[in-house]
Design brief:
It is built from 10 helices and 7 strands. The chain is an alpha+beta fold. The chain has a single domain, classed as Up-down Bundle (Outer membrane efflux proteins (OEP)), CATH 1.20.1600.10.
């Protein structure tokens, strides 16, 4: 059943709606209006950026060229041309629990913003009540049938509307929307960090495999030297001390192999955990440096574009926006709060007569509440909000400075990685030739064991340094893509699924000079 409105109620409802709409449209919004920080004025990250990186002289050490303004692909890890790496990253992006936690955080932030947005609309509440009452016998019976025990049933509807004259609710919505945007960029940052970590872990695994192979070659060479010394010792050409020294040198090199094997096993465990697997599950992926390709062209975004691309900078900007809106909330809370309300209810002693004629009442009114004395609480909250804005501004500037340093460090690393690899390759080739000559001379009895041992140690060190230098070029190439934002704005993605919380962040805007 539905209660009939009293004769005058429709005009009151129309009045409430008209006044609410008029006041809402004319209401002001206190506090600072957010203005995006200006893009950095710098045109470069370094005073002298090398654009051509020298070749190392081996596969995986090709020359690279840094191209200003080259866009970053959404699946940037594809530049290494490894199908296994691509599959592993796609698995990680879907199964990693940290990504799922970040996606849930985005859903929370968005739902909180939606809940706050509801404050812009009237609130309608309904209530039902039933009580059993007993009047004192010393008084007259309160009911028509002279009964002192009676039931009272009530049904009512209440409509309330906060006028939000000073924009407190609107600023709160603005703040929560900005917080949701920050969470969106944090999710994008989590995607970027996870992909970068998988790439770095795969490259390190490949490096460790190469170091193990180099160490095993060195062990084989030293065993060959030991065989030569044993034969020459039998002929009396060398002393037993020379043989013992070679045995000690061989044992020392063999002792370096288990730590490398341990690091490789732990790296495999890391890759399993990054892809959301337990470590008891065998991984079919195996990475070697020879299976990776070094991209010939590397992107370099303008500084003004880089701050639009990096998720951490965009998240800091969104936090700054949120803090700015909270200042408006604190200011608006110092002004009167006006709420319009209207209600209708009916009461009866029985449910059968609850909607009978003459039992319905209504109320229409407005309440204004102004804090007069609060011990300075509202003023303190305003100062705290302003300090929060100053803090967010400083954190944003710090994030931008850190981003600049990150890109600059990576550019320098790439430059010196190329030079290091070229020198390491030359050193490995030279020490390999020296070792071959020394071992031949030892077989002919033309040199001493010490000369061979020195050549072996030099070759061992040069081989490991070459592998590490080669891996560093891959690692820092990936680091450049990460430092520039990772191309998330170019990643193909279906429409956001509210159940999964898929991100939909604002893509980078064109620099002011290009608009």
């Amino acid at each position: 059943m539905r209660a009939a409105l009293p004769a005058g109620m429709p005009k009151y409802r129309k009045l409430v709606g008209t006044v609410a709409a008029a006041v809402a449209l004319s209401g002001c919004t206190l506090g600072p209006d957010f203005v995006r920080p200006d893009a950095p004025k710098a045109e470069a990250y370094l005073p002298d950026t090398a654009t051509n990186l020298v070749a190392g002289g081996i596969d995986g050490g090709e020359a690279q060229r840094i191209v200003q303004g080259l866009d970053i692909p959404g699946q940037w890890w594809g530049v290494f041309q490894s199908a296994e790496l691509n599959r592993l990253i796609e698995t990680a992006l879907q199964a990693n629990p940290d990504i799922q936690a970040a996606a849930a955080g985005l859903k929370i932030a968005r739902e909180n913003a939606r809940a706050q947005r509801a404050t812009l609309f009237p609130t309608l509440q309904g209530g039902i009540g039933a009580t059993q009452n007993q009047a004192p016998a010393s008084l007259s019976a309160p009911t028509a049938d002279n009964s002192y025990i009676y039931g009272l049933f009530t049904i009512g509807l209440t409509l309330t509307y906060n006028l939000d004259l000073w924009g407190a609710n609107r600023r709160q919505i603005e703040s929560l929307d900005a917080a949701a945007e920050a969470q969106c960029f944090q999710l994008e940052g989590a995607y970027l960090s996870l992909a970068s970590n998988v790439v770095a872990a795969a490259i390190l695994e490949a490096s460790l495999r190469a170091q193990i192979e180099a160490t095993e070659r060195i062990i084989a060479a030293q065993r060959g030297t030991l065989d030569i010394l044993n034969r020459q010792s039998g002929l009396g050409a060398v002393t037993g001390a020379d043989v013992a020294a070679q045995q000690a040198a061989l044992a020392q090199v063999e002792a370096t192999l288990p730590p490398l094997q341990k690091a490789l096993a732990q790296q495999r465990n890391l890759l399993a955990s990054l892809t959301g697997r337990l470590t008891d599950q065998a991984m079919i992926e195996r990475f070697k440096l020879a299976d990776l390709r070094l991209p010939q062209e590397l992107p370099l975004s303008l500084p003004s574009k880089m701050v639009e691309q990096r998720p951490d900078v965009r998240a800091a900007e969104a936090n700054l926006h949120s803090a700015s809106a909270l200042v408006g909330v604190a200011i608006a809370n110092q002004f009167p709060n006006i709420v319009l309300n209207a209600g209708i209810n009916t009461q009866s002693l029985t449910t059968a007569t609850l909607f009978g004629p003459g039992l319905t009442g209504s109320v229409v009114g407005a309440n204004a509440l102004q804090t007069i004395l609060d011990g300075g609480a509202l003023a303190a909250r305003k100062r705290a909000a302003q300090a929060g804005l100053e803090q967010a501004d400083a954190q944003y500037r710090s994030t931008v400075i850190g981003a600049f340093r990150n890109v600059a460090d990576t550019l320098r690393a790439l430059e010196y990685d190329a030079l290091t690899l070229r020198a390491a390759v030359a050193a490995e080739q030279a020490t390999a030739t020296s070792l071959t000559i020394a071992r031949r001379r030892l077989e002919l009895g033309d040199t001493t064991y010490i000369f061979v041992l020195t050549a072996e140690l030099a070759y061992q060190q040069a081989s490991l340094l070459r592998v590490q230098a080669q891996a560093a070029r891959y690692t820092d190439t990936a680091a450049l893509f990460q430092a520039l934002g990772g191309g998330w704005w170019n990643r193909d993605r279906p429409e956001p699924d509210p159940k999964t919380g898929a991100p939909r962040c604002r893509p980078p805007a064109a620099p002011q000079s290009q608009r």
